[in-house]
Amino acid sequence: MHVGKLVNEIPVDRGDVAGGNAFTATGASTENVLSSATLTDVELLEAIRHDNEEAFAELFRRYWKKVHDMAFPRVRSEEITAEIVQDLFISLWDKRASHSIRHLPSYFHTAVKNRALNYMEAQVVRKSYRDYCRKYFPGSDNITEKTVEFDDLMSAIETGMLQLPEKSRMVFRLSRLEGRSIPEIADTLNLSEKAIGYHLTQSLKKLRFYLKDYLVTLALTFLVIL
């Protein structure tokens, strides 16, 4: 069995997903599949930690559709949902020796939520950039070049946001991506307005540092107008 091949066979057609098609590990014997099917989640995780691909195939068969059904309502795209599911399971396999998962449903719920949030944040930022280009570069002939520049900038912003402390990242998202006011954010996060201002200042300072090699002038303007 090849783990990557197994995970990449996730269907992106709603009919296939609705039908609950199961996956069988390529090269896995019926005996191994049946044996793995009798294991608890904890036993599967322990076997996976010791490089047992049949155990991973059983965990994948047991949970892929549940993970899919968690992700799809959040992103409303079969293609993006499939990417989230693939990324989640491949990450679980790649980090099998170091993970400390205690409860799989809770782990999957949190992992899906975070990946879906990252996708939605990227979509909001992308829309803001398009609006910016329409306003400041009407009829521009080099829109393709600007799109390429934006993709580079987006990658830098996403990487930078991952480096922020959780509270600062939340404040930045609510302020610059969702357009909420400082009083609204303070109420949402149950923090003082002074604390919100501090987190926002720190977030912008750190992101500007991460973006120092990526079209500095555009990056700084972009962070201000979001």
Q: What's the structural blueprint in terms of helices and strands?
A:
Blueprint (H helix, E strand, L loop, with lengths): L2 H6 L5 H5 L11 H8 L3 H9 L3 H23 L2 H17 L9 H33 L6 H20 L3 H12 L4 H8 L3 H18 L5 H10 L1
Helix pairs in contact: 3-5, 4-5, 5-6, 5-7, 6-7, 8-11, 9-11, 10-11
How many domains? The number is 2
Name of the CATH architecture of the largest domain = Orthogonal Bundle
Sheet-strand content, in percent, reads under 5%
H and E order: HHHHHHHHHHHH
Question: What is the approximate shape?
Answer: elongated
- Mean pLDDT score: 75
- Rg from alpha-carbon coordinates: 21 Å
Q: Would you tell me the structural class of the helices and strands?
A: mainly alpha
Number of strands: 0
Amount of helix: over 70%
Largest sheet features: none
Individual helix count: 12
Observed structural traits:
226 residues; Rna Polymerase Sigma Factor, Chain: A; Arc Repressor Mutant, subunit A; 2 domains; 75% helix; elongated
How do you describe this structure in short?
This protein is mainly alpha-helical and 226 residues long.
Write structural notes for this entry.
- It is a single chain.
- The protein is mainly alpha-helical.
- It has two domains: 3-114, Rna Polymerase Sigma Factor, Chain: A; 140-225, Winged helix-like DNA-binding domain superfamily/Winged helix DNA-binding domain (Arc Repressor Mutant, subunit A, Orthogonal Bundle), CATH 1.10.10.
- The chain is built from twelve helices and no strands.
- It has helices at 3-8, 14-18, 30-37, 41-49, 53-75, 78-94, 104-136, 143-162, 166-177, 182-189, 193-210, 216-225.
- α5 (53-75) runs antiparallel to α6 and α8 (143-162) crosses α11 (193-210).
- It starts with a helix and ends with a helix.
- Residues 19-27 and 215-222 have low confidence and may be disordered.
